[in-house]
Amino acid sequence: MRKYVDLIHKTFDFPTPDFEVNQEGLRFYDIPLMEIIRKFGTPFKLTYLPKISDSIQRAKRMFQESMHKYGYQGDYRYCYCTKSSHFEFVLTEALKNDIHLETSSSYDIPIIRKLHEQGKINQDILIVCNGYKRDLYRQYIVDLLNDGFRNCVPVLDNLEELPYYEQQVHNPFDIGIRVASDETPRFELYTSRLGIRYSDIVDYYQAHLQKNSRVRLKVLHIFVNQGIDDSAYYWSELNRFVEMYCELKKVCPDLDTIDIGGGFPVKNSLWFTYEYEYIVDQIIENIQSVCQENNTPTPHILTEFGNYTVGESGATIYSVLGQKQQNDKELWYMIDGSFITQLPDIWGLNRKFIMLPINHWEEPYQKINLGGLTCDSMDYYNTEAHRNELFLPKIPANEPLYIGFFNTGAYQEAIGGYGGIQHCLIPAPQHIVVDRTEEGNFSCQLFASEQTSESMLQVLGYD
Q1: Backbone CA torsion sign across 63, 64, 67, 69
Q2: Mind listing the pLDDT tens digit for each residue in 87-104?
Q3: CA 150 to CA 391: how far, in whole Å?
Q4: CB of 151 within 8 A of CB of 125?
Q5: String of b and e for 327-365 (b: at least 16 CB within 10 Å)?
């Protein structure tokens, strides 16, 4: 019978830059996963810090090369969306790369304060404050501006937001405006609930900002929910947005920056293909072309990359606890965790991640379904991207099968929760941070142990 390793080699171009297999099992960015499993057990989440810097530097390099190629007159700045992963070690690694930050809620601002206290940022850093803002968020923004964070830019999400800043901020300050984009044609709604309508923006500027000596409109922001992709919808939205910039620039000379929200995708399959360099070239070429047609100076460009920054740095590793043959066709491998609580994008957004076994690649394979530990009928995973069937090695009697979901570094903790109380009281797994030493060796640090019953009892009021 054919081995699992034969199936992979026949089906995919394998090994890849991120995955390879040797006698010890699967390696992820050359990380010896079986060694970590033997040391810490499962389940655990893993963050590989160097991949964060690699992703940032790649994007910066692509934009700089494309701007040089087309003679683009404008600067590029990379913003990290903190909502993708708020962990201190993620921000610390990202900030090594001369980036800026984007916030989306009030409690992002204490993180900014803490980073400043630690000397990891200074007051010159650009802080793009997005979102529909409650009172506390607006007050925190005001406090930053009054305390000397002169590049903190509140991005107006509605027509009533500005007066609060005008009343509370002591010195002149800059703002942005978010444009309400049209949603993808497949979406249930036509226009995004966030941002200000195209038809209102020029009139709003002329009525409230044109003669306002204390407030400068510097940034025009758009967010395309499906991210940057090579589709007629995306290029139409981008060009329409740049047309808006050109129209507004004619009456607003201070406006000099566009913020392209919605980022690059990350690999969700070993079949994944995405021509990053081509897409960046098209972005630069489209912006420059629209500006030339309108005789308008090209703007500086901000991108807000969250998932792209941290997604491919993460993995989630499980043991297969046992198998269950529930009928003639459905064989289940039961994992020691839950998809609903630990990888919520799987059931909430029907998203797929790269899934591979860690060991037993030399064993025969069989078609299976993966089941989580909660009682919910949706706590399962039964397909790889582009396939209707999922195959894994058969489980020998002498050693458990370990499996990994890869490129899970963004949003999963933010959506599923970190600690606290989750479905069926499934505990949050261990979290392990992996880095490289100056000599190139790996270092592993246990950031958080598996959640305890005592911590749950305390949250629930029993202690």
Answers
A1: negative
A2: 999 999 999 999 999 999
A3: 55
A4: yes
A5: eeeeebbbbbbbbbbbbbbbbeeeebbbbbbbbbbebeb
Separation between Cα atoms, residue 112 and residue 179, nearest integer Å: 25
What does the alpha-carbon distance between residue 160 and residue 174 come to, in Å, rounded to a whole number? 17
Homologous superfamily (CATH) of 72-305 is: Alanine racemase (3.20.20.10)
State pLDDT tens for residues 414-437: 778 788 888 888 899 999 999 998
- Whether residue 368 has pLDDT greater than 50: yes
**Which fold is adopted by the domain 4-49+311-459?**
Lyase, Ornithine Decarboxylase; Chain A, domain 1 (2.40.37)
Which residues sit opposite 129 in a β-bridge?
103, 154
With 0-12 / 13-18 / 19 or more C-beta atoms within 10 angstroms meaning exposed / middle / buried, residue 42 is: buried
Q: In this structure, are strands 314-325 and 44-48 parallel, antiparallel, or unpaired?
A: antiparallel
Give CA–CA dist 3/142, Å, rounded.
Answer: 62
Tens of pLDDT, residues 181-193: 765 556 554 566 7
282 touches 264 (CB < 8 A): no
**pTM, 2 dp:** 0.94
- Closest among 361, 373, 284, 297 to 15, alpha carbons compared: 361
Give me the sign of the Cα torsion angle 129, 133, 136, 139. Answer: positive
Domain ranges of the chain: 4-49+311-459, 72-305
Q: Residue 304: beta bridge partners? A: 79
- pLDDT digits over 130-159, tens only? 999 999 999 999 999 999 999 999 999 999
Residue 125 CA: distances (Å) to CA of 14, 84, 112: 41, 19, 10
**What is d(CA 110, CA 410) in angstroms, rounded to the nearest whole number?**
21
259's CB contacts (< 8 A; 6+ apart) are 79, 128, 155, 176, 219, 220, 221, 222, 302, 303, 304
